[in-house]
Amino acid sequence: MMNHAIPSHRRPLRYAIIGGGMSGLLAGIKLKERGEDDFTIFEKAEAIGGTWRDNRYPGVACDTSAHSYTFSFAPNPDWSSYFAPGGEIRQYFERLVSRYGIAPHLRLNTQVTACDWREDHWRVTTADGSSLDVDVVIAASGVLHHPNIPEIPGLDTFSGARFHSAQWDDGEPMEKRRIGVIGNGSTGVQLVSALAGTAAHLVHFQRTPQWIMPCTNRKFTEAEKQEFRTDPAKLEAARNDPAAVARRARFTAAIIDAQSPELLEIQEEAERNLDQSVRDPALRELLRPDYRAACKRLVFSEDYYQVVQQPNVTLAMGGIERIEPSGVRMADGTFHELDVIVLATGFKTNQFIRPTQVKGVDGRLLDDAWAPNPTAYYAVCVSGFPNFFMLNGPTGPVGNFSLTDIAERQWGYIDQLIDELRAGHCVAISPSPEAHAEYDRQREEASRETVFASGCKSWYLDAAGVPQIWPWSYAHFIEVMREPCLDDFVLRRSLTPA
Ligand code: NAP
């Protein structure tokens, strides 16, 4: 329950928001809505958009329904298709910047290098050496943000073009080239589907097969878009599409219980997709994973299995021995000559706000608090780091959910904690060490029951194999985000110790 019994005097707050991606913009818009203007959004790149700015590889799209991957307060009647292409999503966020007057708050090309807690406020330092004192830091720096460049021997010796999927080289022609795509997560699969049509030859390097779920990405007609523009109820219904809500409920029931009938259903659907789509039995077995569906993030594709059966596509399964100047040598000795190598090898997902150096109470480093794994109480705040809140931070629901919805719900929770500061009930608020530790204990216990822990490797797992993402239902997430339990928090009333 929120504490309204404490005497209060309202005080204006100063905010630093770190990251100009989806969730950083959300924080700015929400502060504006409240009439709070003293905030700066620090963005290290030259433009806003986060993931949707960095990932502009051919075929990039969001495999969550476009209408549910929008903010509840800013529905978009103009999505071109059920799954929106990445460029359209970036433009959606750019429109919000002008619609909500966020531009004057943006400091682009400005990397935050340090955040130091100074008893009752944060000093935020940027790479140009300047600093800003604020009351609240919102870390909205993303999860899938630091490209994972694999340590494959000889990678640097390749004489053709090579780049990570999130660092696309727009100047590099792809048509009629011999392309190798390393990695078959959601990115690799989208890339292969998009590039195979025009490549001279495409080799898809797969270390571990993936379960692929079927899906249909239908275009919205002009008549439908017109209806969405003129009928807000229709647009809202598309946002809360009952079929998508039911799929989410089935998915969440499946992932939190590896023995559930819902998981069996997903498993059967993925197996059926493989069995019905791939004609050649040898190829089919090559593509069959030996772990449960949804153990890794589920990949959705309309056409991947059809694409890999095209004559100009080769599947290279198993280990890569090394990369040589003209191509890739496999562990079995096979050699693939290539002009371009795309590394769809994922991200370093335990970085979050780092390498920014964050020092909390008594100079404690976030790096130390996060050893061996990044953690946050209910995924939003960290014991010993007052007035420091995270959107899409460690241990939250990620993967196949709509991250816009998650960020909005997290903001609703954070906003209530900030209310304690706004009201003057305290100058510093953070979860107690006991509450944070208990959250982690319960989370780890629950995570062992999830499908993520059922026997595969994925970016959801820490080095010890423990899933580092939300292990409970989505309904539980919605429930706990409704209102913080203030008993779990340490509120420092003033600078003078009591
Ligand atoms: P990912 O799921 O982490 O997949 C990385 C791929 O690279 C895996 O196939 C992995 O193989 C392979 N790999 C890594 N290191 C390798 C090495 N040294 N040698 C050979 N292969 C190597 O990365 P991602 O596909 O970029 O996706 C990351 C996340 O981004 C997704 O899980 C999803 O949350 C998000 N995403 C979402 C969408 C969407 O439509 N909403 C689209 C793209 C991405 P192993 O499996 O053997 O490790």
Automatic annotation (TrEMBL):
Coiled-coil regions listed: none
InterPro entries the record matches: FAD-bind_Monooxygenase_sf, FAD/NAD-bd_sf, Flavin_mOase-like
Lineage top rank: taxon: Bacteria
GO molecular function: flavin adenine dinucleotide binding; N,N-dimethylaniline monooxygenase activity; NADP binding
Matches recorded under Gene3D superfamilies: FAD/NAD(P)-binding domain (3.50.50.60)
Keyword Flavoprotein: yes
Pfam families, sorted: FMO-like
Key words, A-Z: FAD, Flavoprotein, Oxidoreductase
Bilayer-crossing regions: none
Protein name per its UniProtKB record: FAD dependent oxidoreductase
Organism: Novosphingobium pentaromativorans US6-1
